[in-house]
Amino acid sequence: MKKAIVTGITGQDGAYLAELLLNKGYEVYATYRRTSSVNFWRIEELGIEKHPNLHLVEYDLTDQANSIRMVVEIKPDEIYNLAAQSFVGVSFEQPLATAHITGLGCVHLLEAIRIVDPKIKFYQASTSEMFGLVQEIPQKESTPFYPRSPYGVAKLYAHWMVINYRESYNMFACSGILFNHESPLRGREFVTRKITDSVAKIKLGKLDVLELGNMDAKRDWGFAKDYVEGMYLMLQAPKPDTYVLATNRTETVRDFVTMAFKAAGIELEFEGCDENEVAKEKSTGKVMVRVNPKFYRPAEVELLIGNPQKAKDELGWEPKCTLEELCAMMVKEDLRRNEIGHSF
Where are the domains of the chain? Predict the structure, then answer.
């Protein structure tokens, strides 16, 4: 039985990837960080928390000794590093913590593999935020990087270290440059889930208005469950490489808002611009959405759209779920959660 370490089990991607690997017959060692409130709601929602081949491991990726000891004890075939301080907004407030966790954390695992067993395959969760102020449209593996947040910069450091270890020590180390990928398991601090959860609350009379920052920001959004399959395929490829996973479609935050309200049976009309922009319900004229400048970022990433052609050609990967299907799925699940008064 193959063994895999998945860091970041409490996150969206960690939960979906653990589910995928368990279904493929892996023994999965899923790591979590000790906090004052460890939360396993995602693996509980997927029904895998009591799976006999899932082992929860307390781990701190900022601790080199912890990383080496874990790899020695588990002897994995594959390591998927999904753990990070992954909130762009928070990275401006906590740049050093983000550097240690998101940047150096990856290197602690790479170094552990180099010391213990260089044959262990490694996957690093890179991000489209590394493209930042985009230098080319659409973005692909060879597009120059220009990160616009401490998070993007930390991820870029980790990304180049993966390439460096791959080339220096002949390690099977892959980087997946994943564009935004969402799901009903997304945290409410991410804009898509904030929108679908708020739409559900407004529909149920539990919230008056949704407040957002930059509604002109354009993103390439896909379904997280499709994307973890791409992670797995990268480590099954004949040779290690870097791959972009994306849908090659971009929409504004405003478009996603419109889509989400439509999924709940509410038609919107937008008026005004910048900080004075609002969205009203067509039938009643009631304000449903407004801009709040406190949600603006110090430096904004305006446009992301990825070209996943290489992943399609070499891995046979392509997204299956459309944005409309994804948005409707998220709204439906948030309506269910809010109806029973149990929304994470």
Answer: 1-181+220-247+302-319, 189-214+250-299+326-338
- Let me know if 151 is a catalytic residue: yes
Please tell me the class of the 189-214+250-299+326-338 domain: alpha beta
Whether the full predicted model's pTM is greater than 0.90, yes or no, is yes
- DSSP 8-class letter at 183: -
Per-residue pLDDT tens over the stretch 92-122 = 999 999 999 999 999 999 999 999 999 999 9
Per annotation, catalytic residue among 151, 227, 232, 243 = 151
Give φ, ψ of 59 to 5 degrees.
-155, 140
**CA separation, residue 270 to residues 13, 256, 258, 274 (Å):** 33, 13, 9, 11
Classify domain 1-181+220-247+302-319 at the CATH topology level.
Rossmann fold (3.40.50)
pLDDT, one tens digit per residue, over 144-174 is: 999 999 999 999 999 999 999 999 999 999 9
Whole-angstrom distance, CA of residue 304 vs CA of residue 197: 24
Kindly name the residue from 7, 127, 196, 258 that is annotated as catalytic. 127
78-116 exposure pattern, b = at least 16 Cβ within 10 A, e = fewer: bbbbbbbbbbbbbbeeebeebbbbbbbbbbbbbbbbbeb
Q: Which of the residues 19, 78, 111, 129 is marked catalytic?
A: 129
Active site residue 127: yes
